[in-house]
Amino acid sequence: MFGSMGDMMGLMGKMKDLQARMKEAQEQLSGITETAESGAGLVRATVNGQKKVVALQIDSDLLKPEDKEMMQDLVVAAVNKALDTIEPKIKEHLQKATDGLLPNIPGMDFGNLMK
């Protein structure tokens, strides 16, 4: 089991460090962005690491009333693609931020702590 109370206190200190680093890392996620397009570039969506849409560009060719449904579909597709592609960047950023703080425990995914 655990060695001494000192070991336990050390572990508690590491958990506090981990929490502080995770908070800081999560704040930095707003600076990580990913852009994806749909409709051969007619729609471009940019999301950040906090999974927020930060930019949306729609080609003026799509701004016709008869293209409304297609435009909506392309916006959804571009946003979803950008969210899918930013996911690995988020994981990598959080892993780097907490590297060396805790032992590598197989099956532990600290990326889920930030959802």
Automatic annotation (TrEMBL):
InterPro entries: YbaB-like_sf, YbaB/EbfC. Its main location: cytoplasm. GO terms for cellular component: bacterial nucleoid; cytosol. Residues 8-35 form a coiled coil. It comes from the Bacteria. Pfam families: YbaB_DNA_bd (PF02575). Binds to DNA and alters its conformation. May be involved in regulation of gene expression, nucleoid organization and DNA protection. Belongs to the YbaB/EbfC family. Homodimer. This is Nucleoid-associated protein EZE20_15690. The lineage of its organism: Bacteria, Pseudomonadati, Bacteroidota, Cytophagia, Cytophagales.
